[in-house]
Amino acid sequence: MLLFGLFAEPVFEASKHGSLWPLPQKVQISEVSLKLTSSSFRIVDAKASSAGPSCSLLQSAYRRYYEYMFGSAKKQWWSKNNRRSDPSDLSELQVWITSPDSECDGYPSVTSDESCEYLPFLVHVMFNGGVQSGLETFSQLVFEDEYGAKSINATIINDFPRFQHRGILLDSSRHFLPIKVILANLETMAMNKFNVFHWHIVDDQSFPYLSRTFPQLSEQGAYHPYTHVYTPADVKMVIEFARLRGIRVIPEFDTPGHTQSWGKGQKDLLTPCYSGSKPSGSFGPVNPILNTTYDFMAQFFTEISTVFPDGYVHLGGDEVDFTCWKSNPDIQKFMQQQHFGDDYRKLESFYIQKLLDIVTSTKKGYLIWQEVFDNGVKLKPDTVVHVWIGGGSDKEMSNVTAAGYTTILSAPWYLDYISYGQDWQKYYKVEPLNFEGTDEQKKLVIGGEACLWGEYVDATNLTPRLWPRASAVAERLWSAKSVTDIGDAFNRLSLHRCRMVE
Amino acid sequence: MSVVTSGRYTFPNYTLVFFIFLQLGLHSVEGVWPLPQSITSSPERYPLNPQAFYFTYGSQSAAQEGCSVLDEAFKRYFSLVFPDYSSGYGFLRFSVDKPFTVQVSVGRDDCDSYPDEDSSEQYTLSVSAGQASLKAKTVWGALRGLETFSQLVYQEDFGSYYVNKTEIEDFPRFQFRGILLDTSRHYLPLQAILKTLDAMAFSKFNVFHWHIVDDPSFPYQSRTFPDLSAKGAFHPMTHIYTQSDVRRVISFARMRGIRVLPEFDSPGHTQSWGKGQSDLLTPCYSGSSPSGTFGPVNPILPSTYKFMATLFKEVSSVFPDSYIHLGGDEVNFSCWKSNPDVRAFMMKMGFGADFTKLEAYYMENIVNITVALNRTSIVWQDVFDYHERIPKDTVLHIWKGLPASYAAELSAITKAGHRVLLAAPWYINHISYGQDWRNYYTVQPLNFSGTEEQKKLVIGGEVCMWGEYVDATNLTPRLWPRASAAAERLWSNEKQTSDVDKAFPRLQDFRCKLLRRGIQAEPLFVGHCKHEYQGV
After folding, report:
1. Which of A181, A418, A456 sits opposite B536 (nearest CB)?
2. A92 and A228 both lie in a single domain
3. Active site at which residues (chain A) (predicted)?
């Protein structure tokens, strides 16, 4: 039992699982306590491991977790040789990558295995995707006594995530988020074993992504062309920082709606709205009837496919308002030519299908918001459908999976909606597979995402608004279905929160 | 309202001029928050050069150099007026600008006193070529004027500073404009409190209501009863306020014209007190034997009142303000009911089974202790609700309910002749999705049935940030700029500020100003500020 004894929460009691979060699949904590001394403790590659000192990803993870557990090396110099290690010390953590390919220089992907087995003295992981979670778990087992000495109880853990896709969506368009904030968030995601950063990078309000092919998009469409943009170097930094923590970065370029800011830098991209027989001066969604639109999209998504290494791109497709399309005489004519009648969903489908073909040609898979599926767009079988609409999401999950599509769930986890009190419990109690469907259908649910939309969120309040509320989602997506004891969760989460605050 | 009288000054109605200002002025002059009672400004503007900018005392001013409050304020406001300026680097000066002088005159040398319930915060500010003249009765009024002046200065895209020709006459609508912080549910580090005081001054709040102790912890380190925090704080060393911490808060607040009102809430909300003071709390009984748990303060023992008298004597010597908040809310009677000694006492006193009488008996004793210490008591409305025999000068603090019920309470309490403080509509620890600042802004504190005399008894309002879900990690963005909405309601003329949509862009501007000043104020809606918050 780990007793931190620091914070006297009114109903707080120590959990038998200490501060582990999210709870591992199998864990046995013994009474045997081992000391850890900063001067002698090392994290090393196991002899049989397929990864060695040349694996910079592992080495930097070792150093990160060493510093995380003991503070930075500079703070530690005085304690060197302070005490000799004795047999009850734990002097080494061995990391054994058992798969032949350690994936050291690769990016985490949708197929990365994050399972990990942890025996006393040894973290034994299949792929490096598991190193992040294994080290995180190890560090969560380490506790400090009243005099600051570190110990760990002999423990056996066998762990793997319940769902493959465990994401956080941040919105950098409603408010610009400084790089520092995004990196800090990735760090906290790693502490919670989240593995997907869904970067809703642009939207109506601003276009902070600095495109090499179309620099005018951010020059004209960002809140400020220098101070409120993400340069290619910034984006690279985010991706590498995430990679080192086993986190995928999936960018979202949402079209044809949610594109007001695109129009400022790219003429003729958006549909001119009409008032009566004249253009009103305002613009609607992307103009789906012009060839130039698709030329632009082809070039743009070619760039995106090289900048973002992940195998998937999120294409949005939500909340398309048809009124502007309806008002435009050229669009009306096009509708007639195409025999779409008055069904503007067909026009939307027309656009999306062309876009999907473009993105497919860049060798990327894609995610789309649920409306694209609802509106009957023909999708490739490996499309991931993202369910977000609050009412009736169970039915939607049923429908999407019945149609054979892979899906991720966000509807119950819109964390930008705040309310008074412990709303984390609401997020915690969600059971993602609680919809009608066969076992085969349930297997199509690859995970979920907590969404923090940016209408009311920027650097000033992002961190306290997201954490530890998102941690509730993290455990739901990682731990076994049977982990539902809200009291035990409160006790562990209280301690986990203190750890995050440090 | 056509004429407002405040002391010997009379202010004409500037409503018409004000609206002209709103329509024409916003592009060149960013607004002042909270809105001054009267402001006229012209497009004529004057450049300000940080190297030729001075604060001085007017020759007729009662306070001169050496006045701690104003000397410090001049330093503070110099960097607030010129946020880019760092004295380490000499500016290249292409032209010799004429100097600009802000001349401050006050009618009284109250530099070494504390702001109190009667302190005038009235000021007039006149900005013209080469100089601004700021006149106030007190240094506290001068502080408010300096804040206003700092908000009139704006920076152009190329970095130069300007101020427009402006005339302002200003004074607060309500005398008491407070913020409650709760340092018991969560400990707030000293820095978080000082930061809040800084931000309070930017919104012209003038009372810091320090709900310093409560059930969960007792962080106040008492000189007389050190065990209270040694045993009742979350941690006896790291989670306490030492005497010097408290002094620092009081002096930091004084420099900003802010009163510090301590609350030692009893007889309920005292679980943490019991840890360090045995026999203070009532032992609860389960059947005929003590259950091991404790209830509210034990009102039947003389030792209780002796303890309280000693504690409040200390409190009144540590906190200079003439008010003390005594709490008195949410007393749970079940423990008292279970205790045979308490029941025997009830019999003896002839209270029957009416425990509100026991509570009233207790509060009366406590109020008398503070009266003897020459302090005015503030108590939560509960005390009035069960007991009308409290001294007339006790201030009642309304915290419960929706507009209809707090309006009724305002009526009833003022009818009984008590002064009253309104907090019910401003419990901003209750968060919800969207722009809830609009609710705080549209409150009408005097919209209750009562005579003019009754309305005068409403001394002000208070924004409460209870600490169940708040600590240093989220305090600032949760408090600001939402509390600023209440600040304008409490300072400005209600008729001039009744339109919440017109307030929106001004509050957005003000929020960007807060960011520029290092206050982590959260956004009102989508958009951006030129200088975003850069911390993590």
Report:
1. A181
2. no
3. 319
> What are B227-255's pLDDT values in tens digits?
999 999 999 999 999 999 999 999 999 99
Domain of residue B51 covers 38-170
Prior bond of A468 cis (ω within 30°) = yes
Does the beta carbon of A425 lie under 8 angstroms from any beta carbon of chain B? no
Cβ separation of B431 and A419 shorter than 8 Å? yes
Total domains in the fold of chain A: 2
A459–B431: do the CB atoms touch at under 8 Å?
no
Residue in B524, B525, B532 closest to A176 by CB: B532
In a domain, B395, yes or no: no
B239 contact residues in A (CB cutoff 8 A): none
CB atoms B433 and A419 under 8 Å: yes
Interface of B with A in 410-449 (CB under 8 A): 429-434
β-bridge pairing A165-171 and B161-170 = unpaired
Is B219's Cβ below 8 Å from some Cβ in A? Answer: no
What angle (nearest 5°) sits at the alpha carbon of residue A179, between those of residues A178 and A181?
70
Whether residues A150 and A191 fall in one domain: no
Number of helical H runs and strand E runs in chain B: 18, 19
Query: Rounded to whole angstroms, how far apart are CA atoms A291 and A285?
Result: 15
pTM of the model: 0.90
Nearest neighbour of B522 by CB, restricted to A6, A417, A460: A460
Among A49-63, A226-240, B140-154, B300-314, the minimum mean pLDDT is found in A49-63
Q: Annotated catalytic, B330?
A: yes
- Residue B218 within a domain: no
B369 touches B309 (CB < 8 A): yes
Phi/psi at B339 (nearest 5 deg)?
Answer: -90, 120
Contact A459/B at CB under 8 A: yes
Three-state secondary-structure class, residue B326:
strand
Tell me if B261 is assigned to some domain: no
Neighbours of B159 (CB within 10 A): 7
Contact yes or no for A191/A474 (Cβ under 8 A): no
Of the candidates B102, B9, B8, B11, the residue with the CA atom closest to the CA atom of residue B493: B11
CB-based contact B534 A459, cutoff 8 Å: yes
CATH code, domain with A58: 3.30.379.10
Residue A155 counted as domain residue? yes
Same domain, A111 and A214: no
pLDDT band at A93, cuts 50/70/90?
confident
Q: Is B186 on the interface with A (CB under 8 A)?
A: no
Instruction: Give the closest of B234, B473, B520 to A8, CB-based.
Output: B234
Domain assignment of residue A56, given as a range: 26-71+85-159
Taking residues A319-342, report their average pLDDT.
Answer: 96
Catalytic pick from A9, A319, A431, A436? A319
- Whether ipTM tops 0.90, in short, is no
Instruction: Name residues whose C-beta falls within 8 Å of residue A27's C-beta, 6 or more positions apart in sequence.
Output: A17, A20, A155, A156, A157, A159
pLDDT at A8 over 50: no
Q: Please judge whether B473 and A501 are an interchain contact, meaning their C-beta atoms are less than 8 angstroms apart.
A: yes
> Of the candidates A142, A159, A176, which is a domain's last residue?
A159
Chain A contact present for B92, CB below 8 A: no
* Option in B432, B524, B536 nearest A180 (CB): B536
The catalytically annotated residue of B44, B65, B330, B532 is: B330
Contact A461 B474 (CB under 8 A): yes
Same domain, A153 and A169: no
- Number of domains comprising chain B: 1
Tokens of A71: 């503070």
- B488-534 pLDDT, tens per residue? 999 999 999 999 999 999 999 999 999 999 999 999 999 999 999 98
Encoding tokens for residue A119? 């025996």
Size of interface A-B (CB pairs under 8 A): 87
- CATH number of the structural domain spanning residue A198: 3.20.20.80
